[in-house]
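Please decode residue identities from the backbone states below.
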């Protein structure tokens, strides 16, 4: 399975009494897809991840924004509760089927952990968090996006299957690899712009970018942005 990437953040004065206000402000920063500009689901879960949800709302087609989602969450406002909100945002995605780029809606899951949820999970997983989607949206595949783009473009890389082999052959052309780098950079810039919006909207104490495949995900993104 492809690795996933995450944003975690902690805010000052986070508590049961401030949770709802901060949740509204967090959700208001979400960079919705142009074609799907509203939230699509809210799931409320108490105690821990092993406990079945206490409430679920399918919001597709209902035009719900941050305030409306928070109003639903307020019906289950407890310190030991977590809130999972679904949306979609536009990212550049490479279509292996036709070797073309497309800016398309990608799933985005927003989380708010109550201070007592899952034995205080918020302390390590963030008061707020986001499942950003596939790691390769921001880092690329197969270690292709390094500082030495021209040299890497001509490298012979092993492919595990026919589709990957075709992909790597396509990326062996410098122009294609440079486009791959540019589209990936634009995804990173979209992420960083959203993070800046969050920091303007909330009293952020610290943030953390993390992924399943990178030892230091944030440093890797900075490295890709630095390549010219």
């Amino acid at each position: 399975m492809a690795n996933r990437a995450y944003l975690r953040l902690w805010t000052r004065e986070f508590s049961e009494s401030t949770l709802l206000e901060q949740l509204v402000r967090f959700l208001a920063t979400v960079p919705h897809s142009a074609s799907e500009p509203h939230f699509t689901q809210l799931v409320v879960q108490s105690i821990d991840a092993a406990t079945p949800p206490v409430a679920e709302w399918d919001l597709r087609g209902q035009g719900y924004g941050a305030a409306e989602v928070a109003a639903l969450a307020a019906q289950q406002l407890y310190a030991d509760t977590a809130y999972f909100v679904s949306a979609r945002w536009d990212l550049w995605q490479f279509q292996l089927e036709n070797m073309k780029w497309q800016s398309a809606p990608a799933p985005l899951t927003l989380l708010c952990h109550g201070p007592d949820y899952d034995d205080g999970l918020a302390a390590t997983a963030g008061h707020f968090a986001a499942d950003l989607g596939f790691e390769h949206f921001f880092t690329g595949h197969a270690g292709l996006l390094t500082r030495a783009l021209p040299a890497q473009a001509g490298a012979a890389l092993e492919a595990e299957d026919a589709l990957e082999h075709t992909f790597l052959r396509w990326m062996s052309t410098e122009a294609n690899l440079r486009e791959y780098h540019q589209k990936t950079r634009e995804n990173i810039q979209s992420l960083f712009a959203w993070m800046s919006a969050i920091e303007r909207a909330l009293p952020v104490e610290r943030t953390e970018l993390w992924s399943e495949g990178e030892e230091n995900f944030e440093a890797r993104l900075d490295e890709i942005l630095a390549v010219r």
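Observation: The longest helix spans residues 174-201.
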